[in-house]
Structure formats: structure tokens, C-alpha cells
């Protein structure tokens, strides 16, 4: 692996085992396929929103619209409401939110956002030149807002695997996984949300333990094979 950093410059690292735990990211507006319009300021992903609120104590919008309706979207709505924003409006494909009823019930203690399904509406157009002023649904309805948060719809961060010529399934972008979470090349493993789907910290913790044991087993076999090769070489030279 070649690693570049401002402080240490360019370095090349080698290892007998590499575990890719690159996580996942949220789909962009273009990847979602139903968002159109301009690209003004105050359109955020969830991570950017959390950095502004938790790290810098800033509320970037008072009347938010959230694109996406899974667990992350409802958690973002609760975070915004607790930080002082108005009730969020959630927009997504489908007649019902992807977040389950019991998950939505949990977040009701902080927030109860209004849901707009896009089954009949097909698309959303972002309105605004300098900063976002609202969204326009394909039925002509205009929803005023001071900011948009694009939430959920996680896809694996497998770009490094692709660059390294490891096998990755397209279009899901999930790395090809063999026994023990090993990738398509020996000595490469994957752990956590890079495997695909949405998993919480507890699942990732135990998954990391399982992958660690697999990597240890691989190293043990490699070391044993190396010792056997060296022993056979010494015996051959002696003869």
C-alpha cells in the first residue's frame, strides 16, 4: 500500500495481512436517481450535519428537508429538532418510510417528521441559486426549507479495493467475500460496513473479532508453510 500524508510524505507499507475496514458512505443525489435541480449551499450529508451540530455547536438550518427515510434519516430529524430546528419533512421513494414502525416510535420522543412518498411523484427538484430555498415535487408542490440533509442508502467504500484489483460486485459495490471474510486475493480481508448493508457498532465489534481470528489463522498457516519450506530447503542442501 502507498500512503501519502502532509507530515510524512509518501510511504510504501507492506504486510502479510491487510484488513479493509473502510466502512460505507451515503449515496449522492445523482446516485439516488430522483433528485434534480441546482447545487446550492446548505445541502449536507448526515456526517457533515453531525460535525456542525456536535463538534462546532452550529445549527445549519431551521426548517429542514431530509432526503431518505431509513433509520439514519429519523435519527437526523431527532438530532435537528433537539438542536432547535423545526419539525423536519422527510422525502423518499415509496408509500411508506423504510424505517420500521418501532424504530419510528422510538424517535417520536424527540421528533415526529412529516413523510412525503414519491411513488406517484417520481422526482424532487432542488431550488436555490446561492443557498437552497426549497424543493419542488414533480406534482408541482413546493416545500420551503432552509437546508437539505441527504441521509441513508449506504453503499460500501470499496474504491480502494477496486484500485487494488480486488474483486468487487457491481452495482452493489460489495467486495467479493470468501470463507473467513477473505477477499479475492490471499492475505486481504474485509470487516464492518464495507461488507454492505447498515450495521450498528455492536455488530461491527463482533464482526471485527471474527475477521481478526480469520486473519490470525491465515498468518499461522502462512508461517507454518514458510517454516516447512525453509526446513525442506535446509534438508535438500544438507543432502
Q: What fraction of the residues are assigned to beta strands by DSSP? A: 15-25%
Largest sheet: 5 strands, parallel
Instruction: Evaluate the radius of gyration.
Output: 24 Å
Shape: elongated
Q: What would CATH call the homologous superfamily of the largest domain?
A: FAD/NAD(P)-binding domain
Attribute tags:
FAD/NAD(P)-binding domain; 15 strands; 239 residues; four-stranded mixed β-sheet; alpha/beta; five-stranded parallel β-sheet; 2 domains; 6 helices
Describe the protein in words:
By secondary structure, the chain is an alpha/beta fold. It folds into two domains: 2-24 and 155-238, FAD/NAD(P)-binding domain, CATH 3.50.50.60; 28-152, FAD/NAD(P)-binding domain (3-Layer(bba) Sandwich), CATH 3.50.50.60. The protein is built from six helices and 15 strands. A five-stranded parallel β-sheet has the order 6-13-7-8-9. A four-stranded mixed β-sheet has the order 5-10-11-12. The protein has a two-stranded antiparallel ribbon with strand order 1-2. Strand 10 and strand 11 (134-137) form a beta hairpin. Helix 2 packs parallel to helix 3 (71-83). The two termini are 40 Å apart.
Produce the secondary structure layout:
Blueprint: E1 2-5, E2 9-12, E3 18-20, E4 24-26, H1 29-32, E5 35-37, E6 43-45, H2 46-55, E7 64-67, H3 71-83, E8 89-92, H4 101-107, E9 114-117, E10 124-127, E11 134-137, E12 142-144, E13 147-150, E14 154-156, H5 159-163, E15 188-190, H6 201-238
Parallel strand pairs: 3-15, 5-10, 6-13, 7-8, 7-13, 8-9
Antiparallel strand pairs: 1-2, 4-14, 10-11, 11-12
